[in-house]
Design a protein that fits this description.
Blueprint (H helix, E strand, L loop, with lengths): L3 E3 L9 E2 L13 E3 L2 H7 L5 E5 L6 E6 L29 E5 L7 E6 L5 E2 L4 E2 L9 H29 L3 E9 L5 E10 L1 H5 L3 H9 L3 H10 L3 H14 L1
Helix pairs in contact: 1-5
Amino acid sequence: MTNIVPLHHQQHATLKVQDNKDFSRFKEQHLIPIVVQDFIPLASEFPIVFVKNTETGQFTAVAMMGIKPNINVYCQTPNWPAEVIPSSFFNYPLSLVRQKEDDDNCFVCIDSDSAMVSKDQGQALFDEKGEQTDYLKARTEHLLNLAERHEQTNNIMQYFANKKLLTLKSLNLNLGGEEKLALNGLYVIDEKRLEALPDDEFNELRKKGLLPLIYAHLSSMHQIARLAKMHINLSKNK
């Protein structure tokens, strides 16, 4: 259960937040939205793919942490097993919420029911004068920076779509024995389309700094086999 409320210096004057790497709250989320700044560091651990909102047509970049819905193989226990972590994992229990749907002004909110929030342990959010502590200022700055990065990522995804570089990919996995799994609804960069781009369009990708992102994404697809193996091991241990 969550209780997301706007952060207020009077109502939450004594609250503290404990930082930890217990990401088990994501255990039923197998696709984690990421920003382009995550591509290169995360590519060594997670397959990076794109999913399409069927209503808006907007593409979202995601890190695959499971091959089946509702099973994140990395977050089944409080112990995070990987060396790299998506930027968004550091938000909680704080978040940004728009005041209005068409308004850029945002509230900093907190999940007051989170186990990371208490009055006894952790980093204080407000000082004795009701002013934001340096900790809260830094956390707020991270939220704002990440919101900007998500907007930047959305723009890049739209650029890839406009260039027709995204293609629907179906993956067939062998989970041992006779069990097979087909992964559908995932988009990847079309390598043939990329290679066929005219020189001026390819150079445009290079000048925009997008080639390292594309190659990180393509390289990350080699992690799917390892992800499937992790799923098999998790199933065996249940």
